[in-house]
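User: Teach me something about this protein's shape.
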Amino acid sequence: MPAIYVHIPFCKQKCVHCDFNSYSGLDSLHRAYVGALVSEIALQAPALRNSSDNDLSVSSVYIGGGTPTLIDPAHIDAVLHAIANHFSITRDVEVSIEANPETITLERMAVLKEAGVNRLSIGFQSLDNRCLQVLGRKHSAMQAIDAFNAARETGFDNINIDLIFGIPGQTIANWASTLEQVTLLDPEHLSCYSLTIEPGTVLEREIAMGLVETPDEDVQADMFTYTIESLRESGFEHYEISNYAKLGKRCRHNLTYWNNGDYIGFGAGAHSKMLNIRFSNIASPAEYIKSVESGSCIAEVIDLSIEDEMSEMLFLGLRKTEGINLEEFKTRFGRPLHAVYGAQVDDLIRNGLVTWDDRLRLTSRGILFGNEVFSRFI
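Assistant: First, the predicted structure itself:
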């Protein structure tokens, strides 16, 4: 049962730390882009149905970006209608959309809810105005809180808040204040990411020029530990390295990725994985629109080997706090996990980074050094 991802690459302004496939100043392309999305969905669905042994019913749809709520919500309605027309949608489907606070109004939220969106992911990033300025965000802390309240007033009862810690100049006390304010709002889900300096971003250039200080890794580690402990006390389950949920509110769509399941991506630069094939679309929105009109927007196709599949199951599955079921690995690949990765696992156990029983999972220390663990299986 695949998940569906829809990419909306438009933003008001690109954040200084962002390396996603997103663009500002392309408002004139909105209508044509949505038309291309609807066409791509219609073109791809029959081919996917004919080539897949899997059930093509869909239990999660995720609309990401960019800032999907920047475009007319009627366009989102059109895309969701196209998906419903060409795929079998489960009755309890999770339909998520990403939103920035400055794009959230009662009117927009009402249209999206009527269109079938039932989960909202709001990009707060911080509730400190200085930190928001460092990141180049367009909203204030108060606008973020008002946006959350507007979503609640519209009837959204499944809301995620995105936060970033380790922002240059941010203290643990400052981060603790943001967490305290956010938990008082009582969202169903929180995604808390440590700021990473991505190559080619404005933030990387600002740090290189000495305009912004480099985030302190030790402070980031302390913030991460504080986050886990604080949110656990507030009733959140830490179920993935960066994600925390109230009971029954784990993100179904993202679990598809972490469980190495199948997913279909629509839109500029979107990625898909079906069975043992990965494919991705042309990244430029303008070129994507032209390519859909000509009949194919796929830029790259990769056949995954068994070794690729095993590697992905390890470095994705270990992101979950429950880790990887050893019996599932053996059933899927016909070999015990230790027969394939015994040397790596034994070394990680010696270093206190993973535990091994009926599951392979990160220790508390391993969670702090997750990237080091994942690199052993790539």
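Now, about its shape. Residues 30-51 form the longest helix (22 residues). The domain at 3-258 is CATH 3.20.20.70 (TIM Barrel). If you'd like, I can walk through any region in more detail.
User: That's plenty for now, thanks!
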